[in-house]
Amino acid sequence: MVTAILTILAWALILGRPVLAAQDTWPKRFQHPKGTVVMYQPQLEDFKDDKLTGRAAVSVKTKEMKAPVFGAIWLSGRVLTDRDTRMATIDEVKVTDAKFPDAKPEQLEKLKTFLNTELAEWSLPISLDRLLAALEVLEKEQAGDRGLKNEPPKIIFATRPTVLVMLDGDPKLLPVPKSSLMRVANTPFIMLYDMAAKTYYLRGGDDWLSAADLVGPWKDVETLPAPLKALEGEVQKVEKAKGEGAAKKVTAKGGKMPAIMVSTVPAELLVTEGEPQYTPIKGTNLLFVSNTESNIFMDTATQDYYALISGRWFKTKSLAEGPWAYVAPDKLPTDFAKIPEDSVKGFVLVNVAGTTAAKEAVLENSIPQTAAIDRKTATTTVEYAGAPKFEKIANTDLEYAVNTGKAVFKEGAKYYAVDQGVWYEADSPDGPWKVSAAPPKQVDQIPPSNPNYNAKYVKVYDSTADTVTVGYTPGYTGSYVDNGTVVYGTGYDYQGYSSPEAYIPPPATYGYAAAYNPYANSWGYQTPYYNPGTWLAAGLTAAAVGVGIAAIANNWWDHPHGYWGGGGYWGAGGYNNININNIHNNVINRHPDRRPDHWRPDGRPIHHPVVSPHNNLYNRP
Fold first, then answer.
1. Mean pLDDT of 206-228
2. Is residue 502 helix, strand or coil?
3. In the Cβ-directed half-sphere of 83, how many Cα atoms lie within 13 Å?
4. CA distances from 526 to 246, 487, 504, 567 (A)
5. Are 174 and 516 in contact (CB under 8 A)?
6. Interatomic CA distance for residues 28 and 39, integer angstroms
């Protein structure tokens, strides 16, 4: 099937050359006796002197297929302009790379060779105005890449079992229905506060922990106070109704409870099982710490420690004392690029600029996941904490809603929303919402400093009277390209929205041990704790290491506005309610809240178990 798809793609593009020369309209459709090829408007990647490079999404559908397969091709060419006609022509077009689901490297090489031989005379027409607009978008994108923040989070190092409890700033207290207790709303963990007793309570497996201060010490609650006892029954009812159950309490080695570390700023936890143990990496001056699930290295030439966190490298002279500093992936010691691919730490090559693994990941980050959305049935709902409240987005004419968990924009008198990789539009911020075939153009100018930055990676590719073909690249789910590698999150410490009725948390870069899986080309998340013996995690809704810390997961104590972070992934809040004709594109079909049984191919190294979100938002249960 792959061979047939690539063959149709090659011949259809070649036979379509006269059509391309006729007009500047996109997408381009090429008919072949065995199928149809659609090439979408190329996205500019670089333009220097008269040399241009870009990429284009391409779909291929054979007569036997119910839905097309999407891939991407990368192009280069020379630009000739005619100011009188306001047209430009891209000559000497070459296909520099191609990506299709399940295609083998040798098949793609044959495709590139074939296309470049046959398309030597191929010319792409494009209006000068469209080219100038593409240049403006390119400049914004390049500025956006530079706009990612790489300041180190608070890095906590420990040598004993430890749990990291994240709060988005100082505690935001909201009342618990039918209780005298308050809940700490700005954390994905179940944390309550008794104002009369001045005591915090933290849900731990089947039990509760308490502390007079967030920093601890935390201890077991031997006898539940009346308000907490009454609440315990409600918690169990909800857990039973959802079929989740609480994580069973497991004591750490020696029967001791783990340390509870609470952070009100972006933080990551590095934990070793006892004092660090070092193992040399063959052919390098590097050592890696072997008794940890974190990625910690030492360069013996400089005695610097390096840690890989959310795709970013940070270094220090002291694990325990810091301070930590960011190191760009193209400024790492050269020995990092020499790490053997088949070694136990070979997977980190994806975060070392210039390596084959890093280049592959960058290419994968450009491939869209697509779907055809039914115009008649698809819709969404948006809930606000109070009346809709909008604020201006810097350097644009757009405004965004700050008191909702969804990405909602206002452009003039029109409103737009992005939900699970689909654009919607309405005449009112409350809807009714219908699928949009023309999202606001300035969405491409949204800076990384805005919490809805990821919306720019959701595109509309095509539309008919019945459907709108949409797609998103991994930027929508928090995967960005910076200095030649992929990183997770923008690095910004966004502020959540707080009201007397609700707290709406922002996207988070740190706190969930986000790690890139090069064998699935996606990010996974590890619950923020260290457990040398047992993993007890229902997605990120519960963890166990001496104690299970149950997280908020759309239960009665949760707000209706969604949570972005470890429990709810970027762009993926809840289950979809739209009628979708899904277009397969290298999809891993699994429940979003379960760690895959086979996180990597047999025999390949793995650094730690992670919870991987569903790669395809359009195909969620």
1. 89
2. coil
3. 0
4. 18, 16, 23, 11
5. no
6. 5
The string over 379-409, giving b where at least 16 C-beta atoms fall within 10 Å of a residue's C-beta and e elsewhere, is bbebebbeebbbeebeebebbbbbbbbbbbb
What's the one-letter identity of residue 530? Y
For residue 239, what pLDDT is reported?
58
- Angle, helices 2-15 vs 105-118, to 10°: value is 10
Could you check whether the bond before residue 276 is cis, i.e. omega within 30 degrees of 0? Answer: no
The DSSP call for residue 518 is T
- Which of 208, 168, 157, 545 is CA-nearest to residue 320? 157
CB 152 within 8 A of CB 493: no
- Give the amino acid at 546: G
Highest-pLDDT range among 9-13, 53-57, 157-161? 157-161
What's the rounded Cα separation, in Å, for the pair 273 and 162? 10
CB 201 within 8 A of CB 191: yes
573 within 8 A of 564, measured Cβ to Cβ: yes
- Pairwise pLDDT comparison (339 vs 540), residue with the higher score: 339
The radius of gyration computed from the CA coordinates of the chain, to the nearest angstrom, equals 26
**Which residues contact residue 441 at a Cβ distance below 8 angstroms, ignoring those fewer than 6 apart?**
none
Residue 146 half-sphere exposure toward CB, CA atoms < 13 A: 5
Over residues 219-235, the mean pLDDT reads 85
Rounded distance between C-alpha atoms, residue 444 and residue 138, angstroms: 9
Hey, what long-range contacts does 482-485 have (CB within 8 A, 24 or more apart)? 482/145, 482/148, 482/150, 482/329, 483/328, 483/329, 483/330, 483/353, 484/329, 484/330, 484/353, 484/354, 484/358, 484/359, 484/362, 485/311, 485/329, 485/350, 485/351, 485/352, 485/353, 485/358, 485/361, 485/362
Q: How confident is the model at residue 24 (pLDDT cuts 50, 70, 90)?
A: low
Instruction: Supply 312's token pair.
Output: 């970013």
Q: How many CA atoms lie within 13 A of 226 on its CB side?
A: 4
Domains of the chain: 2-146 (3.15.10), 171-247 (no CATH), 267-364 (no CATH), 377-461 (no CATH)
Nearest to 343 by CA among 610, 603, 520: 603
Percent of the chain scoring above 90 in pLDDT: 39
Could you tell me the two tokens for 618? Answer: 């359009």
From CA 117, how far away is CA 97, in angstroms rounded? 14
Q: State phi, psi for 344 to the nearest 5 degrees.
A: -65, -25
